[in-house]
Write a structure and sequence with these properties.
Chain B: Residues 1-107 form the C2 domain. The complex is a heterodimer of chains A (554) and B (177). Helices cover 20% and strands 32% of the residues of chain A. By secondary structure, chain A is of the alpha+beta class. Chain B has no helices and ten strands. In chain B, the strands form three sheets. Chain B has a four-stranded antiparallel sheet with strand order 6-1-10-9, with no helix packed on it. Chain B has a four-stranded antiparallel sheet with strand order 5-4-7-8, with no helix packed on it. In chain B, a hairpin with a 5-residue loop joins β9 and β10. Classes of the chains: A alpha+beta (554), B mainly beta (177). The interface between A and B is medium-sized, with 18 and 18 residues. β26 (542-543) of chain A pairs antiparallel with β9 of chain B, so a sheet runs across the interface.
Chain lengths: 554, 177
């Protein structure tokens, strides 16, 4: 039974782009595929598969909702030899549309030697999907709109790599005909990591609403060689504003191709009916946008009238900030030499589990002071510790099914007046877990109120606790691999104690990622990182079995 | 033949790194000897080509006395004057016993070798696994054997335990549940 009203708030969220809040993002195994791909690359093995991204769109879907239209979402499955379906990923939900073009792509590993049957299901999403991780949406609660099947190689061998299929009812059900068509477009992806972060705003936009102002959002699409365009992201909606300023947008090279590829930027007025009014558009490459930022100038939007006449509008787009950077994937850094590579564990089906430790030493500066590394900015700008926690959270959500993970602080004076080198960030005596990034962030914020920064900077206790957890899980015979993230500003006080703890932990399923904030002297960290081939030695002549530490300056 | 108070270990002597004879890299024919303080346990074959990075990868089952606290690994080579020890390392039994990992965990361990002058001389890589005893095959005559004691439930923390199944390695964490 269809819904009376669609979930408008859900439809206003930003989609696409690279950095998303964990609840809105839906990244479909991309993290796992990164890990597997890196595994092959790091061994110099010939890649026996190519990573392919599927973009989906549909036309003439059946209308299931009463007052508004269907809110469709597509789910992609691989069909195993025994006929069972295994979900590969799902798109986002599009509001009120019978002709959706989904932005969220589904990543599939195309293996040359085998036949890969794919099954696509389209659903009309009934339940509220605002702030719910899309992958937890129960499909049986949604209305089924149609199914299509094909083999992956069919899509790749078609001209334009696009395959259009008729949607039908599930096999065995007597159903309606004419459920619409689904188009699948495939593109091979390259695991590049350069990203571009921009802050955009518009001024003097036309008013498309009658009783209030426009609610503008931007949609950025990439132009294909065939002439069509594929949306790569959209910003969030700014309500009631003709001079909107959007949150920073992050695009990866994967998404826009090269900096010279032309992109279409469309500015729409959001309508809860799903039929958004185009305010204006322009065509710019990423390089052009960079020039706009440098010149601090704007570019006028245009609109094409019915007669095909292109009218230049008063509305302009400005690029306030433009920044190109390497986006670090933490998985790239958790690589080890010697006997056991953590990816050996992942490829054998080990589950990744994260642990976080935050530096509460006085060298960070008094948290009340805006210069402090622990300063919580009321405007919402994240400090380095918060950024690191967010980025870890994005990776964790792909791997850690229950989203609960241990979080500690070290080097601070806790409520009872003693300095602890491993205290529970959530302030609890019994449990060290936080729930998701939100839990981690709020535990961090409240710890800043309850803990006095002290010192010295010692990692040994945290490493020992992490090693203890990792070895306990070994005994439960569960396949878990642990990654401890230590976020610190600084200079280690007892390098040898840290080395001893690391050496002792070096043959456990554990990797340690040290994220260094601010530009402190990280010479010691580089010693621990042992990338120059010097294995760490303990004070008792034991040598590390493998290099379990990676150091990443933030 | 089982002795009353010993534990069985499966030791794989894997390889050595940067081992020198009088500061010059070893040319060939290095081998490793494993022993406790009192008796030899096993030795590997000579690595004919390995030079100063010998590779043996030989698995040996050895028994160590239950009270032993170290096992010693020596890398030696043949000289005209007999077998010469190039480097030695002492492996504390506590490095593969105790802690929270299960008794049968395969530990990969590496140690700094030191020559007779105490100078650093390369690294030795081994793996060690404590063998769970096979009660059915046990040929001991102790009446203290209790077959079927659920591991981890006996409330004893370290030290010698009367009534412990014969041949079972006395591993502290074994009893910590």
């Amino acid at each position: 039974m269809g819904n009376y009203y669609s979930d408008v708030e859900g439809g206003k969220q930003a989609v696409g782009g690279v950095q998303q809040s964990p609840t809105a993002t839906n990244n479909n195994n991309a993290g796992h595929n990164d890990a597997v791909e890196f595994f092959y690359r790091s061994r110099g093995l010939h890649q026996r598969f190519a990573r392919v991204e599927l973009s989906l769109s549909a036309i003439n879907l059946r209308d299931r909702d009463i007052i508004s239209k269907s809110d469709p979402m597509a789910v992609v499955y691989a069909k195993n030899i025994d006929g069972k379906l295994e979900e590969l990923g799902r798109t986002e939900v599009i509001l009120n549309s019978l002709n959706p073009t989904w932005i969220e792509k589904v990543t599939v590993a195309f293996q040359f030697e085998i036949v890969q049957p794919l099954v696509f299901h389209v659903y009309d999403v009934d339940t509220k999907f605002h702030n719910i991780p899309l992958k937890t949406l129960k499909l049986k609660d949604q209305d089924f709109l149609g199914e299509a099947t094909c083999v992956l190689s069919e899509v790749l061998t078609k001209q334009n790599r696009s395959l259009t299929l008729n949607l039908r009812s599930k096999i065995g059900h007597v159903g309606l005909r004419n459920l619409g068509v689904l188009t699948i477009h495939a593109e091979e992806t390259v695991a590049l990591r350069r990203v571009v972060e921009m802050m955009l705003h518009c001024s003097y936009l036309d008013n498309k609403d009658i009783f209030s102002k426009s609610d503008p959002f931007l949609r950025i699409s990439r132009i294909m060689e065939s002439g069509g365009s594929i949306p790569i992201c959209k910003t969030e909606v700014v309500n009631n504003n003709l001079n909107p300023k959007w949150k920073p947008l992050c695009l990866s090279v994967q998404q826009f191709g090269s900096k010279d590829n032309p992109l279409i930027i469309e500015c729409f007025d959001f309508n809860s009916s799903g039929k958004h009014s185009l305010i204006g558009k322009l065509q710019k490459s990423v390089a052009d946008l960079e020039k706009l930022q440098e010149g601090r100038s704007g570019e006028n939007l245009t609109i094409t009238s019915h007669h095909g006449h292109k009218k230049v509008l008063k509305g302009e787009l400005f690029v306030d900030q433009f920044c190109e950077k390497e986006q670090y994937s933490f998985l790239d850094y958790v690589s080890c030499g010697f006997e056991l590579n953590f990816l050996d564990y992942v490829s054998c089906g080990f589950e990744l589990n994260f642990m976080v430790a935050v530096d509460f030493t006085a060298s960070n500066g008094n948290p009340q002071n805006p210069d402090s590394l622990h300063y919580i900015d009321p405007s919402g700008q994240l400090n380095s510790y918060q950024k690191a926690i967010m980025e870890v959270g994005e990776v964790i959500q792909f791997y850690d099914s229950d989203r609960r993970y241990p979080a500690w602080g070290f080097g601070g004076k806790t409520f009872d007046g003693t300095i602890s080198h491993c205290f529970n960030l959530n302030g609890s005596a019994g449990s060290f877990e936080v729930e998701g990034v939100e839990g981690n962030m709020s535990a961090y914020a409240s710890a800043l109120h309850n803990v006095t920064l002290a010192g010295p900077t010692l990692f040994g206790q945290v490493i020992k606790t992490a090693a203890q957890i990792a070895s306990q899980y070994v005994s439960y015979n569960s396949k878990k691999y642990f990654i401890l993230l230590i976020i610190t500003d600084g200079v280690l006080t007892d390098l040898q104690e840290t080395k001893d703890a690391l050496v002792k932990a070096s043959d456990l399923p554990l990797s340690i990622l040290i994220v260094g904030v601010r530009g402190a002297d990280f010479g010691q960290m580089e010693v621990l990182d042992a990338d120059k081939g010097q294995r760490l030695e303990s004070s008792t002549d034991r040598v590390a079995t493998r290099d379990i530490v990676q150091f990443v300056p933030m | 033949m089982f002795s009353m108070a010993s534990s069985t270990l499966e030791i794989t002597v894997i390889s050595g790194e940067d081992i020198r004879n009088n500061r010059k890299p070893v040319k060939k024919n290095a081998f490793a000897v494993i022993r406790t303080d009192s008796q030899p346990l096993c030795r590997t074959e000579m690595d004919k080509d390995g030079g100063s990075y010998p590779y043996w990868n030989e698995k040996h089952n050895v028994e160590i006395p239950q009270l032993a606290r170290f096992i010693t690994v020596e890398v030696q080579c043949k000289t005209s004057a007999g077998d010469k020890t190039l480097g030695m390392a002492r492996i504390p039994v506590s490095d593969f016993v105790g802690g929270f990992v299960p008794q049968s965990y395969l530990h990969f361990l590496s140690y700094r070798l030191r020559n007779s002058n105490g100078e650093r001389n390369g690294i030795i890589n081994v793996s060690v696994k404590a063998k769970v005893p096979e009660y059915a095959a046990s040929s001991c005559s102790s009446t203290a054997t209790t077959i079927g004691v659920p591991f981890g439930k006996t409330p004893c923390y370290g030290g010698v335990v009367p009534g412990v199944p014969v041949g079972a390695p006395i591993m502290k964490q074994y009893y910590q549940g």
